[in-house]
Amino acid sequence: MRFVEDLLPAMSGFRAAEQVRAAAGALIGLCLCSLLVVLNGYVSGPSLMLVAPLGATAVLVFAIPNSPLAQPWSAVVGNVISALVALAALIYVPAPWTGGVAIGGAILAMMLARALHPPGGAVALLSVLDPDPVLEAGAWFALMPVGVTTGTLVCVAVIYNRLTGRVYPFRHVDPRKSQVADPRLGLSSDELGELLVRFNQSTNLGVADLGRLLAAAEEEAAQHRFDGTTCADIMTRDVITARPDVQLPELAKLFRQNRIKSIPITDMDGALIGIVLQADLMAPLIAAGSAKGWRRNRAQIKASDLMRPVTDPVSPDLSVGHLLNRFAVPGTEVVTIVEGKKLVGILTRSDIVNLLLKGAEERQVA
Q: 122, 52 in Cβ contact below 8 A?
């Protein structure tokens, strides 16, 4: 039974919309390639034709456009190189070894060029099975029809995929940021790439997509771990706030007496309009150039002069798991919780740590 189960489909089902999107894209792409062939016949004779492996290329570029095997470089260069290798095999390798040498050589050449494209193997085999047009056209066969028709199909795929919500070609990692750890994961692009190589998956998945999948999985796991805990469940409700016209000495006193790291600034109706961090108190001192200058001018400085805008306040019913990545970003001291515009609480790193420790104690008891 286990063996029978292993023979069943391993691929997850496709959403209906994705099935229609991919099929329609392949239809449009190959129809436009056929139109190009027809027009070329009227202009310069039958030098351009459709080759069967173009159908396999259409499957890749329209159905799985995120695959490294489907990227423009892989598709165009892979098919062209395979045609050239097949031509060389036809000229220099006698039967019955021609087919094996053509396909094996095509795979090696594509891998050396970092242009592995499965339909390239079909291009090589087709060239060997029907050698007359290949030998007649010579090296030109790799460009006309293979290169031109593949390039046309790829251009259609670029436009069609982007119009239908898919990113194609996928974005390459910025080499200037490849060694910088993603705050969502703590892994750099180089490290993600090494994982793909270690598990021999670099032909199936790109670095950017691996990062997105891992981040999504990590967030989903956090949701399960916190078992639906919301911001309202752990937020600090009795928040120490200040009005915009509070002077700097009073702000400093609030920080000192309450041992807090941030003070939200609200209006008379309790609406959140800004926030002051401990570090913000240093700005007037630096601007004054001396402690004496700071003491002389501090009475003129108000909270409205020091406060910074509030970035992305959240609602009380938001799951805590959604905020883990935000607290992983350096400089994020506090997350404000609002209902409408009114401040109802705050979340700090300490609140998250306490929640994690509480979960650790429960797991130890269990």
A: yes
Give the integer Cα–Cα distance in Å for 81 and 318. Answer: 53
Average pLDDT score over residue span 58-72: 93
pLDDT at 4 over 50: yes
CA atoms within 13 A on the CB side of 34: 8
- Going by the DSSP 8-state scheme, the letter that residue 260 receives in this structure is -
pLDDT band at 201 (very low <50, low <70, confident <90, very high): confident
Question: What is d(CA 264, CA 237) in angstroms, rounded to the nearest whole number?
Answer: 12
Q: Over the stretch 101-146, which tens digit does the pLDDT of each residue have?
A: 999 999 999 999 999 999 999 999 999 999 999 999 899 999 989 9
| CA 307 to centroid of chain Cα atoms | 34
Residue 312: φ, ψ to 5°: 50, 65
The Cα 148–Cα 141 span in angstroms is 10
Residues facing 314 on adjacent strands: 337
Amino acid at 232: A
What is the Cβ-side half-sphere exposure of residue 358, based on CA atoms within 13 angstroms?
11
CA dist 312 and 310 (Å) reads: 7
- Please give the span between the terminal C-alpha atoms of the chain, in angstroms, as a whole number: 37
* Strand boundaries in the chain, DSSP class E: 262-266, 272-277, 334-339, 342-348
The Cα 296–Cα 158 span in angstroms is: 64
Please state whether beta strands 334-339 and 272-277 pair in parallel, antiparallel, or not at all (unpaired): unpaired
Torsional sign, CA 212, 216, 217, 221 = positive
Nearest to 319 by CA among 248, 233, 210: 233
pLDDT one-digit tens code per residue, 308-358:
888 788 888 888 877 777 776 766 778 999 998 899 999 888 887 787 776
User: And the tokens for 357?
Assistant: 């420790």
Q: 53: closest CA among 112, 10, 110?
A: 110
Q: Rounded CA gap, 250 and 238, in Å?
A: 19
Could you tell me what percent of the chain has a pLDDT over 90?
40
- Whether 247 and 298 have beta carbons less than 8 Å apart is answered as yes
pLDDT of residue 161: 94
Residues in the chain: 366
